[in-house]
Amino acid sequence: MSFDDSIPTTASPEVEFISLSHLNPSTELAPIPARGIDLAYFRRYVRALEDGGYDYTLLPYGSGTADSFVVASAVGQLTERIRPIVALRPNTTPPTVGAQKLATLDQLTEGRAVVHLISGGSDAEQARQGDYLPKNRRYARTSEYIDVMRRSWTEPAPFDHEGEFYKFDGFGPGFAPYESPIPISIGGQSDEAFAVGGAKADIFSFWGEPLADLRSEIDRVHDIARAAGRTTLPRIWVTFRPIIARTDALAWEKAHEYVAKVAATFTKFGINRQGEPQNAGSQRALAFAERSELYDRALWTKTAAVTNAAGASTALVGSPETVAAAILDYVDQGASLVSIRGYDTLADAVDYGKYILPLVRQEIAHRRATGRRSGFQAQHPGNYAPEYAQLATAGQS
Questions:
Q1: CB 240 within 8 A of CB 339
Q2: Which chain positions lie within coiled-coil regions (predicted)?
């Protein structure tokens, strides 16, 4: 690995951290067959995020999960600083109602609300709540949803709307956000996702993938944004599942143990084993996994392979220093929002806050102060040194 201390022209000057809030102690390593909320655990988890220095937490949504709006409101009242990100499917909530709910959350949290719009990657999951719109039309609905929602926040007088998916008369003025517009995030790897996200989203989210591939996808999003006449480009959000220990060697021992347990969980419960996934993001992750298990400094794809790429599933493996250096590689490619969530959920959230976030922030502070990169990334080469790959394969049978 060659290293130049100049800051890449693609690098983000800032980085903020996201976690995902868990409602009970069940994990992929040790599943608990319950869908309820363990309130004491949830409070501990959210407090750990606040104490650990995270900036955001994602409240996921599924047809059989807790309601993301209600949970986000709880997060807002249990924290002073964390920004709750509401995962919202347009088929579940009309855009005027979604705007009202989000503005209410924003008022209650004094401007901390964020929304992540999920158009829907699985026909079967969408159908569970009565949504039969074809996948190639769901992003068109999301596009209209964004327009109506933003207008609901800003229109000073009642207005009518008649679009392809929504129609109403005399709505508004709607309930306003706290001070400024609520950021809207979009994710996905389909052409439709890029078209809508590039043209209209404040944030575009990716799962962790090889650096060069991610950079080309960032360029694609930003090119679409520029073509749409935007002067402010979408921020880039990238998600990983780090597996860390005191040394790279110990981290790889843990990684092999974890992947065996996760594979056993998915096999036992028959999770996401219905053939090739429909969504382009999972298909892309599986293609990377088939090509190689290891990429760049610390990206490991076997976790995606054993889960059929069910959600964000690619790992970063190594010591806190190696993983922090790998995160900085993605910051250098343009990521300004980094989501990290573990497999031992609460313990990992605490460890990341103690050992990873400070290292990344220390480097960002150095860059701001000096206009140069420190030698941190060069000092922790990970897979750019031959010993790392040997550790990666040592625990395999």
A1: yes
A2: none
> Helices 320-333 and 357-370: crossing angle, nearest 10°?
50
- Cis peptide preceding 134, ω within 30 of 0: no
Q: For residue 395, give the DSSP letter.
A: T
| Closest listed residue to residue 357, CA positions, set 383, 373, 343, 339 | 339
Q: What distance in Å separates the CA atoms of residue 32 and residue 26, rounded to the nearest whole number? A: 5
What is the token pair recorded at 241?
Answer: 């599942």
Whole-structure pTM value: 0.95
256-263 long-range contacts (CB < 8 A, ≥24 apart) are 256/395, 256/396, 257/395, 258/29, 258/303, 258/343, 259/302, 259/303, 259/306, 261/28, 261/29, 261/30, 262/28, 262/29, 262/303, 262/306, 262/307, 262/343, 263/306, 263/307
Residue-wise pLDDT tens digits, 333-380: 999 999 999 999 999 999 999 999 999 999 999 999 999 999 999 999
Nearest CA to 141 out of 75, 174, 94 is that of 94
- Count other Cβ atoms within 10 Å, centred on residue 280: 17
| 235-240/203-207 β-pairing | parallel
The pLDDT of 43-60, averaged and rounded, is 97
Using DSSP's 3-state secondary structure scheme, residue 206 falls into strand
Round to whole Å and give the CA distance between 32 and 46. 20
> Which structure tokens are listed for 117?
């719009």
Q: CA 333, 334, 338: angle at the middle one, nearest 5?
A: 100
Instruction: Tell which CATH classification among 3.30.70.100, 3.20.20.30, 3.20.20.70, 3.90.180.10 matches the domain 16-244+314-376.
Output: 3.20.20.30
Beta bridge partners of 57: 19, 84
Residue 396 CB burial class (10 angstroms; 0-12, 13-18, ≥19):
exposed
